[in-house]
Design brief:
By secondary structure, this protein is α+β, with helices and mostly antiparallel strands. The chain is 26% helix and 26% strand. It has seven helices and 13 strands. Strands 6, 7, 8, 9, 10, 11, 12 and 13 form an eight-stranded mixed sheet that branches. Strands 1, 2, 3, 4 and 5 form a five-stranded mixed sheet that branches. The longest helix has 18 residues. It binds magnesium ion.
Amino acid sequence: MPELDLIRRIRRLSGSRWIGDDCAVLPQRPGEELLVTADLLVENVHFRRRTHSAGDCGWRLMARGLSDIAAMGGTPRYAFVSLALAKWAGEQWLDAFYRGLLKLARRHRVQLAGGDLTRASITAAGIVVLGAVPGGTALRRSGARPGDIVYVSGALGRAAASKWRDLPEPRLSLGRYLRAKASACMDLSDGLALDLHRLCLESRCSAAIDEVPVYPGATPAQALTGGDDYELLFTAPPATRIPCSLRGLALTRLGVITAGSPGRILFAGRPLAPAGWDSFRRINPPARGMTELK
Ligand SMILES: [Mg+2]
């Protein structure tokens, strides 16, 4: 199918009124700051043709972008999706991919506003999500201070335990709720051990945790290093009241931020290595559902 027909097809599927010009012309609202995030989903790195459906790939790509907006306390507005398609990814794959992606986008009122298409030797998809926060209220990784309490939403190890079958839900309403509460926040894309280490590096502090909420069926190791959970990891001053759950989503107290060498994490009193998903490392922990690929 020629590119113009493919674009027509995507336009029809998405019902987008933004696609058609060289750029999307988007309205701006006064008093807001723009949030912009980019993510990739690459065949044989993040997904495999035989084991991951096109619809799941679309959903996951959108979930990764929206989760970054959630981590900053923002509201997502527009998405730009670019695709490099290998020969095996035909029209059916393309349709199912966009259906998965648009299902999650519609749930959060995100509009597909553009992208690019090309043929390639492997299939890869990239997303850019534009979101917004009221000026000066974006949550960052760098705001944690010694004495702050460390929390996480949901239960960890879900993606690893379900071999990637369970689809992640970006925690957008929790992120917005945390704008007035949290001192620091990030989403868990690569595993708690590695992501908490990153948050502590940005905040120039250490953390001591005692408890991790483990998803039913997952091992404690999967909960610590499994990755792809897309829950929110956040800190709040000890005087700030954080409920044990928000609209059915558990919020668990993991431990406390401490002064000390930046990035150092203690789990039950012992040093915790910053292990997790890192696509530039040759060996990743066996917890991840993608291990079968290597
Ligand atoms: Mg992130």
